[in-house]
Design goal:
By secondary structure, the protein is an alpha+beta fold. The protein has one domain. The chain has 2 helices and 9 strands.
């Protein structure tokens, strides 16, 4: 058997084995200094983004005085689930320029939608990622209540 054939066979065998406790894209997680992710995630959603749309809204609530006018900024991501058992079909990225703290990521199993909240300052970074790279969305939830969600690219070779 050639070395190439044996290497490919070993790779295929490795890929067919059940996943270990580590999430599929664990290399993109920051260090876990507080050991919040010391157990296997209860839930993992991993989506490869294939389409996105930008929504800039305008909203005026006329029943309040003074009349607040808001202009929500949102990106809707669609794609394909990459892990077994994943049910995610879309991701809503909400950008907030006014709050002092961000809301936690929320996965709604009924609508199969993950909603993430980012500061408005991150909008340009996210758009650049979507325009130039393959982007993944990862959502992990743990029994201890810890939630992690991110947008990340695959490994990109520097030029």
């Amino acid at each position: 058997m050639s070395l190439l054939f044996r290497s490919l066979a070993a790779l295929l065998l490795t890929l067919s084995l059940p996943l270990a406790a580590a999430p599929m894209h664990s290399q993109f997680l920051p260090p876990d200094d507080l050991t919040l992710r010391d157990a296997e995630p209860e839930q993992q959603q991993l989506l490869q983004v294939t389409d996105y749309s930008v929504v800039v809204g305008a909203q005026r609530q006329s029943n309040q005085q003074p009349i607040p006018v808001t202009s929500p900024l949102m990106i809707r991501l669609k794609g394909k689930s990459l892990n077994k058992g994943a049910t995610i079909t879309q991701v809503l990225l909400n950008f907030d320029g006014e709050s002092k703290s961000l809301k936690k990521p929320v996965y709604d199993d009924k609508s199969k939608t993950l909603t993430l909240f980012y500061p408005l300052a991150q909008y340009r970074v996210v758009i650049d990622l979507l325009r130039n790279d393959t982007v993944y969305v990862q959502f992990l939830s743990y029994a201890n209540g810890h939630i992690w969600a991110d947008l990340h690219t695959g490994a990109v070779r520097s030029r």
